[in-house]
Queue: 4 jobs
Job 1
Amino acid sequence: MDENRVNQVICGDTLRTLKTFNDNLIDLGITSPPYNKRENKKGWLVKNVVYSQASDNLPESEYQRNQIEVLEELYRITKEGGSFFYNHKIRWERGQLLHPMDWLRKTKWIVKQEIIWDRMIAANIRGWRFWQVEERVYWLYKPKGNNIIGDELNPKHALLTSIWRFPPEKGNPHPAPFPLALPLRIIYSVLDEKEGGVIIDPYCGSGTTLVAARILKHSYIGIDISKEYVNFSIERLAKYQDEIGIARAELEKHIVMKTFKQRKENGEFVGRHRKSTTVEKVDNPLLIFND
C-alpha cells in the first residue's frame, strides 16, 4: 500500500494520513507546519497569513498537542538513523513567548541541532521589539541502536554553518513558502551523493520539498489538506526541470578546500598563526542532472 503512495501528493489531514503509513518507510523529512499565528499577525509589509482550507487559529494547547502527535507519527514511519527537519519560529501571544522547544522536547526525537534561517525580511516591523527576521529549523534525529549522535556530515556541507541566509520564495501562491534552496541544502547535505531515498513533507504546501527531492533523484511523499495546493504541487512537479538552475546555484556552495585532517597530515595550516601555502579543491558539488 505504501509503495503506491510514493511519488504522490496526497490531499488529506496530516495526522490522519500519517497514521495509515507503515513503520520505517522514510529516509528524511522536511516541513514547515502552520504556525498557529491566529490569523491576526500582520505588519505594514506583510499581510496576515491565511491558508487555503486550513485554520491557523487554534487554542495553543490544542495546537501543540497536535504537533506532538504529528511528530510522533513521523518518528514511527522514519527509518532508524533517519532525520526530520522542522521549520518553525518563536512567537509571542499577549506578551508570552511561545518556543518550538516547548513541544519538541515532549517527542521521541533527539534535537540534533537548531539552525537559524535568516529570512532577511520581517513580517512585522513595529518597534516594540527588534524586528524578527529569523525562523528556526530543527534537525531532529531518530537514533540507530545506541548511536544517538549519528553520522558526521561531509565537510563540504558542514562548512555552510548553522546560519542560513536566503529570502522566502517569491511569486508563489502559498502564503508562507520557504525557498527551494532550503530543502535542497538539507537533502543534499544529509543524504550527500545518495539517490533513491524517500523524502516526506507532511505539510507540503506548494511542493517545494517535493521538487527538491525530485531534482536530487529521490522519491517523495507530500501531504496537504488543501486541494488547491495539492494541484499546484502536482503541476510544479511536472515542470521540475525548470527549477534545476536554482538547484545548481545552491549546490555550487557545497565545496570545500582541503579538510582540516588533510592539512594536518600534510603539515599545512592547522591554526591561526600558521598559513597554508597550497590551496586545492578536493570536491566539486556541481551535479549533472539527467532524467
Job 2
Amino acid sequence: MKTVLITGCSSGYGLETALHFLDRGWTVIATMRTPRPDLFPASDRLRLLPLDVTRPDSIAALVQGAGPIDVLVNNAGIGLLGAFEATPMATVREVFETNTFGTMAVTQAFLPDMRERGSGVIVNVTSSVTLAPMPLVAGYTASKTAVQGFTASLAHELEGFGVRVKLVEPGYGPSTRFTDNSGDRMNGLIPPAYAPFAETVFAGFRPDIVTVPADVASAVWQAATDGSDRLSYPAGPDAVALARQD
C-alpha cells in the first residue's frame, strides 16, 4: 500500500486529489492549516495533519509526523488578481512565500528520505498561466513560473537517485476558492485607469471551457503513477488547448 501526502487539502484541487487517491486504495496524508475531518469519509487509510507551508517549524513537525511517503503533491497555493502597478511588493512577496518558497521548502524537507530510499515522486501543481501570457496576474504568474523552472531543473538533479519530479498545470477553475484564498490582498488592485481593460479581460472568459477539480485530480494521479519521465501534465480542456499551442 503506497502513501501520498498532499498539501492544501481544505478545498478545490487538493481536496479532490486526496479523495481520488483514497478511492484507489492509497494511504492519504491530507494537510491543511486547520485539519477538517468533516471534509472526508471515515477511513483507516486517511490521516489529517496540520501544515503551514510558510513556517519552517510546521514543515519540520509534518515530516516527523508523516514518516516515509511515496508521493508528495505540492498543491497549497494562494491567488492574486489585479494590475501589477497597484500591487504592493509586500503582497507579491506573500504570494511567493506560499506558492514558490512553500513548495520548495516542503520538497526539500522530504527529499533526504526519498533519496536514501531511491524512490519517490514529487508532483508540483502550478497553473496554465505558465503556458501562455495572461493579463492581471503578473505576480501570481511569476510565482508559478518560478516553480516550473525549479521543477524542471530538479527533475534532472534527482533522476540519478530514482526520484521523479512532475508538473501538473491546471486551467481556469471558477469552481475553486482562488478568490477566497486570496483574501483581502486583492482589494483595490484594479484602479480606475485599469477598469476598462479589466472588464474586457473578464468578458473574454469562456465558462464553457474550464477546469474542474476532477481534471486536476486525474492529472495528478497520472503524474504520480505512470512511471514515465514525462515532466508536464496540463489539466483541464483549456490547459490542454494552451499546451498544444505552445
Job 3
Amino acid sequence: MRNKSAAFILSACFLLAGCQSSDTDTSSESHYDRVSAKIERLKAESQAAASTGSNIKIVVNLLTTDIRDYAAIDSLWRYAKADVHTAGSPDNFAMSGLRIGLAGHAFKVKLGIAKSQIASSEDTELFIVVADGTPGYISIGREVSVPRFYYYGQFYKAIDYEFRRAGRSLKVVARRLPSGLIDMELTPVFSKFLSTGGDMELTELSTRVTARPGQLIVLGKIDRSDESVAAALFSHYDYPRETQTLITVTPYIH
C-alpha cells in the first residue's frame, strides 16, 4: 500500500515578457502582451456586465472511471474544441497537464454512450449558483494521493506532508458579458494543503473560457504524466484501484 505521506517538490519559474527570443519575433507585440491584452479586454467586458446583477447557475458533472477504462473517455476529446481558453501564464499552464475544451451535441451523445458501456464509472451531478463576478467552488475530491507533483510558479515546499488531509477543487468566477456569453475563470485549489492548514490557490494556472449559456465546458488531464498538477487534481490512487475524473461544466443565466 502506498505511503500516506508524500514529498511535494515545487520549482519556481519566473515568466517575464522578455523571455521570448526577439530574434525570431518579427512582431512588435510579444505573445505575453497579446495574452495580457485579451485578459484585460475580458475583464473590461465583465466589469461592464456587473451592473446586471444576474445570478449564474453552473451544472457540474463528474465522471470517474477506472484508469483501465479511461481510454474510452479520453477518446471523446476529438469532439471537443481545444485552444479556446486564455491562460495568464501560458507556459505554466502547458506544463500543468490541464486540458480544457468546448463541446457540442456530438460530445454529449458520445459521452452518454461511453457511460452506458463502462461498468466501472461513477457519475455525479451537482450544481452551484453564484452571483455575477463572485467565486464559487467545484469540489472534486477530499484526498490528494499522487506521490508528488510539480507546480512551476509560486514557491512552496513541503516535506512529509499528509496529502490525504487535503481537498481538490476548482474555484470558478462566472461573469455575464454584454454579448450574452458567459466568461468563466477557473483556478485549481488544494484546500487544507499548506503546513499552516490553509488553502493553496494556484493563481498562475488560472484560465478563462467563454461559452454560450447551456454550452458544455470539458476539463480533464492530458494523459502523459503522473507528476503534474492535473494528475493531482483529477487522478486518485487507492490501492489497488486507480481512477481518473473527467469534469463537464455547463453555465446558465439563472
Job 4
Amino acid sequence: MADQPPLDAYSQVVAGVAAHLTGKVASLRVPQSRSGGPGQRRGGGGESLGSAVVFTSDGFLLTNAHVVGSAQSGTASFADGTSAPFTVVGADPLSDLAVLRTAGTTPPPAELGEADQLVVGQLVVAVGNPLGLAGSVTAGVVSALGRSLPTRSGAAVRLIEDVIQTDAALNPGNSGGALADSQARVVGINTAVAGIGLGMAVPVNATSRRIISALMRDGKVRRAYLGLVSVPGPLPAPLQERFGRKTGLRVSEVVPGSPAGRAGLRAGDLLLTAAGKPVEKAQDLQRLMFDEVIGKPFAITVMRNGALVDVIAQPSELVAA
C-alpha cells in the first residue's frame, strides 16, 4: 500500500494549533441556578458548563462572565486528566469577561495575541473543552470584524466593541474557550453563537487587556458615566475637511441630571472630540470611559447650530442598578 499522503498545509496549521492549545483550555463546572448565555450548556444540579483559557503561569484563567454568572467558585478540568478548584477573581458582564484563579497546578499558559491585526478571511481555530467533548476543535475564517454585541449589567447597557465574527462552529460549552490565529495566539474568547454557522468572540486587544488587568488587580472594572445616548452622524463638508473624517456622534438623548446634562449637552449636538480624541462611533467614547476620568474635568467639543462649542463634563462612576 502506498504511503499515506502528508497533511495538506491547511490541516497542518489546524492540527498544530489544536496540539498547542488543547491542553491549555480548561473545562469548567460552575455550580449555580441561573441559566447561562448563548453557547453555554447547563449540567445537572444547577451547574453551568463552559471553557476557560490559561493565560498566566501562576494559574489565572480567562473565560466569559456569563459562564460564571454570580458564582464565586467552581472546578476546572484539563485535557491531561487533572482538575483543580478555582475562585472567581472578578467578572465584568459589560465586556463578558471573567478572570479565575486556580488553587492547583495548571498547564503552561497560552499566548495572547492581538485581535486588531485580524483581517476578514483569515484562518482562525476555535478550541474549547466542553464537558464530554474534551479538546473540541473547529476551524474557519474571520467572516466579519467590527461587529458590536450588546451586553447588560443591571440597568447599564454597553456594546462590546469590535467583536469577531467567525464561521468556525462553536460546540455547546465552548463559551470561554480560545479563538486562535494560525500561530496559536489567542485573539478572542468565544462568547456566543450568532446563528447557524456563525460564532462571536470577544477580541483580545488593548481595551480587553485593560479590563483583564483591572479584574486581576481590583476584581472589578470601574467605568465612567456621562448619561447620553448617541448615534453616528455625518459631519458637514467643511468640518469633514477640517477634521479629516466624515462622521461624529449625534446626541439623541441626554439623561436629566446626568454629568452630560449638567455640562449643558443637548439632544442634537454633534460630538466631534472627547478628551482631545476624535469620536466617530460609540466605541470611541466607550474606550475613554474608565476610572481615570471619573470625577475629573472631561472636555467635549460639539457642533451646535452650525457653531463649535466646548463643554466641560465631569463623569461620575457607572453603578449597576
